[in-house]
């Protein structure tokens, strides 16, 4: 065993040095002669070393930092007669300022590393006297194998250095007491101040000199040296706990996620060894530094974890992210660990220890290492009657309500729930004034015999006493796990599930009903809802009557309707919390709205719809609210390549429609308003002559002989050109099946609706011209005198009938090509055959006729498809003509201008507005597509930001919205006597004093997989009015159900590796709008103040609201026994609480 005090024998100590992993101390053994290591008694512990030579001389030292005793060794250099103590640092790469503990003197070395002594008789005698008085261990007692692996507290006497004039003075000082106000979560290791002076008790004769040990090849000045200035190393803080999560990735890897922000990556690192790893880091995170006073960005922190099993250090790795460090440990053996840290072998308490034992734990015990194994966490209970521990516990270390909860190992879900419930005003007061003791039900088989209620009371009082920075909820967790096996161990769980079980367990422990009677479900059977609801509530209270029910439970109305027989079933059921669904993920669609008045400019709307299961109805309803029109009077269409791609039906899905697609919404005239049949017409635009250039003859495939010669286009399709009529006739057999109007659309299409009585050519012209100008630019060039008129540009070419008969039967004009091709009339040859072409660029028009030569031919006779301009009502020439497309939209028929005569058009037909851009005509126009002219809808300005941004009101609307049950949830209809997929609707009937709302962020995609919805839900902090959602108690007009928020549970991350925190405030007893303690952020053991504006975030998961002006009466203290059977148990429970330490049981007045 090592001696209780340590002292440096000046004659033995030579020097010391260190490198990244080892500290090496050299002892001079010249006077001992030749030595053998087996003759030397030596021992190493984690914090000290001791050497005894065969001649009886001893050397021992309390080390400045901890070492690995099992890896340390003693070497003997025979040539130099020097002993070397090679001690492995427990924290590698940690530079020791001195190897002696705190201000304990080791030896003062000269600059050359040799010892210097000042022989003073008086001093030597005193030194010898001190050595004689020191307890030493005989060589015979140390001959056995030394106890190297045991860690011993070297709480003996320390030798401190005091400055004198040219002399270093050693002092032996008792160090029996530890610092009572040291931070329990971190052990700081710093160099002692050189300005500290104390009166020496026993000076030693040591010459004033400097000590400069070599560290990694460099020379550093030791603590206590004088003469030269020394550079103070950065302080090192040993952390006992760092917020982390761990999980096993298969059987080969253990992954540790350490949550730390604003790390200095240049100085931070992770060191791996077979049985542990060490995290060394620097951080500038203000929240983390606030937990460690006197620490700053330059402070070096270290956290070491002893592992449950061996790893392969060379194959382990780590990586930095902005908010955490991901550490991957490669297991040496492929197996399940069941936890990260090695299980504690000492200090384990029995699982069935009393609930109040936690209150006796000293403050330092509340910050033990975070366990992840399936064992009870370590707690260190001080000896009975320890006055110092009581003094520490009684001391106020923080304000009431600012005590955190220690993360026992992935228990952030539990901590967030407890902190939220501890700020529930009525619940806090109920347990603080000990009114719950009279209601403990020890005979309820569904409860814990009162153990959960008592443990919760102890925990609640500890949170509001202010004597803990952080408290361990170990006992509460153990009790919960004893009733619900899913909470055994330290895996992550859902906070809402734990909250529901905790409140239900408290309810059963405090249930005022000793013997629960049998009750049946109350159905309406046609009775009024008020009577049915009250009867159902009273029946519920016959079995469940507790303060938890009074405070948290409400009642909703459930309505089921059979889809076959229309049987209606109405029941009233209690609820503890409201699980409200979130709207599905959104996408923003751009929709251009066209009013039925063509003179109103289109309006651009941004509409948010669900990404899945969205329909046309969602878009139409959204736009109808903005334009104040009925959705049935709107039509939604998709436009692709300047034409309609599809017209959506109201129930058609929009799941495949992306945000980049072009959608038009048209207002149509309703039949009810028109009082007659309404014709709906689709209109698309195209030029008469397409913009496709013609570079060679389609018949002979030759280009024009010169630039002056122009190819002549086919007057039917305008898509091909010919050198002359002969080329056209030769090419006609191949071309006739493809000769149809151009499909080159310009501008944008639109829908028009016209009453049947006003469906005239004049009205169509007006509507088409008005709508088209929003998407095309039309110019009418001035008439040029040099340009020939259509009549002057025509010439004749005669062909004999025999020549025509030799040709394959051809139509008399290009306008008749398609009709003959469709009729297949090959047996009849007309007496006169005419083929007409029109020049694409100023060429002549050729026409053949077997009859006499005419000098002038009317344009409509030779230029097929060209309607001679007609005068409109205003006297101007029309710039376009209208054609009617067939159902295949391939063949068209030109509409005859009948002025104001009613046209007969089929329903849902398609019209083409054909712009007259043939420049060889007398009146032609230039037409080009342009960007759609529109106005922005001011209400859609923020629609993009609202995508993925919902309100609590929307969620409540979804909660009360009727839904059809899934097949696996089918309802058994008592009338049909079969299971039916009935329609179900939930409505709020009775609202509680404390309303808990769960935002259902986790959606099940499959049986084994579910997603998290991270969308923002905006919820009110004040004035949540549920009047429109609550259909019961309508007569209570003076006290509407208005709530104020007082707590929020947040969830960060995804399904794996998430983290829970909580925001909470303590509402005033009389006024829930005021706070006795303001908003705080509870992040496990960390509690910080926050502003109210910071509470509403996208990470909110569970909301806690308190109703205004709705007090809940609490039972008086000790109302009396609940019965003969429970009186003894109640008294026992009360005595347990009464015997709890004062720091736990004393109520805190806020």
Describe the structure.
Residues 820-831, 1141-1150 have a biased composition (Polar residues). Residues 111-216, 797-831, 1130-1150 are annotated as: Disordered. Residues 1130-1140 have a biased composition (Low complexity). Its EC number is 3.4.19.12. The chain is an alpha+beta fold and 1150 residues long. Among the domains are: 13-219, Sandwich (Immunoglobulin-like); 236-330, Immunoglobulin-like (Sandwich); 355-374 and 384-514 and 1123-1145, Cathepsin B, Chain A (Alpha-Beta Complex); 586-668, Roll (Ubiquitin-like (UB roll)), CATH 3.10.20; 690-752 and 777-896, no CATH class. Helix content is 17%, strand content 27%. The strands form 16 sheets. Strands 25, 49, 53, 54, 55, 56, 57 and 58 form an eight-stranded mixed β-sheet that branches. The chain has a six-stranded mixed β-sheet with strand order 6-7-2-1-11-12, with no helix packed on it. A hairpin with a 3-residue loop joins strand 16 (269-272) and strand 17. The longest helix has 15 residues, at 451-465.
Largest sheet: 8 strands, mixed
- Identify the CATH class of one domain: Mainly Beta
Overall pLDDT level: 73
CATH fold topology of one domain: Immunoglobulin-like
Our measurement of the CA-to-CA distance between the termini, rounded to an integer number of angstroms, reads 54 Å
Helix coverage percent of residues?
Answer: 10-25%
Specify the oligomeric state.
Answer: single chain
Please report the total strand number as a whole number: 58
Using the 3D structure, state the CATH architecture of one domain.
Sandwich
Organism: Cyprinus carpio
Keywords: Hydrolase, Metal-binding, Zinc, Zinc-finger
Enzyme class: hydrolase
GO molecular function, one term: cysteine-type deubiquitinase activity
């Amino acid at each position: 065993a090592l001696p209780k005090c340590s002292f440096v024998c000046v004659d033995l100590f030579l020097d010391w040095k260190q490198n990244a992993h080892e500290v090496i101390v050299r002892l001079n053994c010249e006077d001992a002669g030749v030595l053998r290591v087996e003759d030397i008694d030596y021992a190493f512990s984690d914090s000290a070393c001791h050497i005894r030579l065969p001649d009886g001389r001893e050397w021992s030292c309390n080390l400045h930092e901890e070492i690995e005793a099992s890896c340390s060794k003693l070497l003997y250099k025979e040539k130099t007669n020097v002993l070397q103590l090679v001690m492995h640092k427990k924290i590698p790469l940690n530079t020791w300022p001195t190897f002696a503990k705190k201000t304990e003197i080791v030896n003062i070395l000269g600059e050359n590393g040799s010892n210097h002594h000042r022989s003073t008789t008086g001093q030597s005698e005193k030194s010898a006297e001190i050595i004689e008085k020191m307890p030493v261990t005989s060589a015979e007692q140390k001959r056995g194998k030394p106890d190297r692996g045991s860690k011993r507290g070297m709480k003996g006497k320390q030798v401190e250095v005091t400055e004198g004039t040219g002399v270093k003075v050693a002092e032996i000082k008792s160090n029996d007491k530890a610092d009572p106000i040291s931070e329990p979560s971190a052990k700081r290791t710093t160099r002692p101040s050189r300005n500290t002076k104390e009166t020496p008790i026993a000076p030693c004769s040591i010459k004033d000199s400097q000590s400069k040990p070599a560290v990694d090849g460099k020379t550093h000045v030791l603590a206590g040296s004088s003469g030269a200035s020394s550079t103070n190393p950065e302080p090192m803080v040993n952390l006992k706990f760092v917020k982390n999560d761990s999980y096993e990735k298969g059987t080969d890897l253990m992954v540790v996620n350490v949550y730390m922000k604003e790390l200095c990556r240049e100085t931070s690192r992770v060191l791996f060894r077979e049985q542990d790893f060490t995290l060394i880091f620097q951080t500038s995170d203000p929240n983390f530094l606030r937990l460690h006073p006197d620490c700053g960005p330059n402070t070096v922190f270290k956290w070491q974890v002893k592992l449950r099993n061996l790893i392969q250090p060379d194959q382990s790795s780590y990586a930095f992210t902005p908010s955490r460090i991901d550490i991957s440990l490669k297991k040496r053996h492929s197996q399940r660990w069941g936890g990260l840290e090695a299980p504690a072998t000492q200090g384990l308490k029995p699982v069935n220890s009393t609930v109040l034992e936690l209150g006796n734990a000293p403050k330092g015990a509340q910050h033990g290492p975070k366990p992840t194994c399936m064992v009870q966490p370590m707690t260190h209970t001080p000896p009975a009657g320890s006055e110092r521990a009581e003094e520490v516990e009684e001391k106020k270390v923080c304000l009431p309500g600012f005590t955190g909860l220690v993360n026992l190992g992935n228990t952030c879900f539990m901590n967030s729930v407890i902190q939220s419930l501890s700020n529930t005003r009525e619940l806090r007061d109920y347990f603080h004034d000990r009114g719950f003791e009279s209601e403990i039900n020890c005979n309820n088989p569904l409860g814990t015999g009162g153990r959960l209620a008592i443990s919760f009371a102890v925990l609640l009082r500890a949170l509001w006493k202010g004597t803990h920075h952080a408290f361990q909820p170990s006992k509460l967790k153990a009790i919960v796990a004893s009733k619900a096996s899913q909470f055994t161990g330290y895996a992550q769980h859902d906070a809402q599930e734990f909250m529901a079980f905790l409140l239900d367990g408290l309810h059963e422990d405090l249930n005022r009903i000793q013997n629960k009677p049998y009750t049946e479900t109350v159905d309406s059977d046609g009775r009024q809802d008020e009577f049915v609801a009250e009867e159902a509530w009273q029946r519920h209270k016959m079995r469940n009557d507790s303060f938890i029910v009074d405070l948290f439970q409400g009642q909703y109305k459930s309505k089921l309707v059979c889809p076959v027989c229309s049987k209606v079933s109405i029941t009233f059921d209690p609820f503890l919390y409201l699980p409200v669904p979130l709207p599905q993920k959104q996408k923003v669609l751009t929709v251009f709205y066209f009013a039925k008045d063509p003179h109103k400019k289109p309006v651009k709307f941004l509409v948010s719809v669900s990404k899945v299961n969205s329909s046309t109805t969602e878009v139409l309803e959204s736009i109808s609210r903005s334009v104040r029109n009925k959705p049935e009077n709107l039509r939604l269409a998709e436009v692709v390549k300047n034409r309609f791609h599809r017209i959506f039906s109201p129930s058609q899905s929009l799941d495949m429609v992306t945000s980049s697609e072009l959608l038009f919404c048209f207002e149509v005239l309703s039949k009810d308003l028109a009082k007659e049949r309404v014709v709906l017409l689709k209109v698309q635009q195209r030029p008469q002559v397409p913009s496709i250039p013609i570079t060679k003859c389609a018949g002979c495939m030759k280009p024009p002989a010169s630039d002056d010669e122009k190819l002549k286009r086919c007057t039917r399709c305008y898509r091909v050109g010919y050198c002359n009529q002969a080329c056209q006739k030769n090419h006609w057999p191949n071309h006739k099946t493809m000769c149809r109007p151009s499909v080159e659309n310009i501008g944008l299409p639109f829908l028009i609706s016209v009453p049947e009585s006003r469906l005239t050519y004049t009205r169509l012209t007006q509507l088409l011209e008005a709508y088209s100008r929003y998407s095309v630019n039309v110019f009418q060039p001035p008439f040029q005198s040099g340009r020939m008129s259509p009549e002057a540009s025509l010439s004749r070419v005669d062909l004999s009938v025999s020549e025509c008969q030799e040709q394959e039967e051809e139509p008399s004009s290009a306008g008749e090509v398609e009709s003959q091709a469709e009729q297949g009339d090959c047996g009849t040859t007309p007496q006169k055959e005419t083929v007409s072409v029109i020049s694409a660029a100023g060429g002549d028009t050729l026409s053949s006729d077997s009859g006499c030569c005419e000098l002038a031919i009317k344009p409509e006779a030779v230029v097929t498809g060209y309607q001679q301009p007609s005068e409109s009502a205003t006297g101007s020439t029309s710039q376009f003509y209208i054609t009617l497309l067939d159902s295949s939209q391939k063949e068209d028929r030109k509409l005859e201008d009948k002025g104001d005569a009613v046209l007969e058009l089929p329903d849902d037909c398609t019209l083409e507005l054909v712009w007259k851009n043939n420049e060889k005509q007398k009146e032609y126009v230039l037409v080009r597509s342009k960007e759609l002219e529109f106005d922005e809808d001011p209400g859609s300005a923020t629609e993009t930001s609202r995508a993925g941004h919902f309100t609590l009101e929307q969620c409540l609307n979804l909660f009360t919205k009727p839904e059809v049950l899934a097949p696996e949830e089918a309802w058994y209809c008592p009338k049909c006597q079969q299971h039916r997929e009935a329609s179900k609707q939930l409505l709020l009937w009775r609202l509680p004093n404390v309303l808990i709302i769960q935002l259902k962020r986790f959606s099940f995609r499959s049986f084994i997989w579910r997603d998290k919805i991270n969308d923002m839900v905006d919820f009110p902090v004040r004035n949540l009015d549920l009047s429109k959602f609550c259909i019961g108690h309508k007569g209570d007009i003076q006290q509407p159900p208005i709530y104020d928020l007082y707590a929020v549970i947040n969830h960060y991350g995804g399904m794996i590796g998430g983290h829970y925190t909580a925001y909470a405030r303590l509402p005033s007893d009389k006024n829930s709008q005021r706070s006795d303690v303001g908003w705080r952020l509870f992040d496990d053991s960390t509690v910080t103040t926050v502003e109210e504006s910071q509470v509403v975030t996208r990470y909110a998961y569970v909301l806690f609201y308190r109703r205004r002006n709705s007090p809940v009466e609490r039972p008086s203290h000790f109302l009396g026994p609940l019965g003969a059977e429970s009186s003894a148990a109640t008294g026992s429970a009360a005595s347990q609480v009464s015997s709890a330490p004062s720091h736990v049981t004393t109520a805190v007045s806020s």
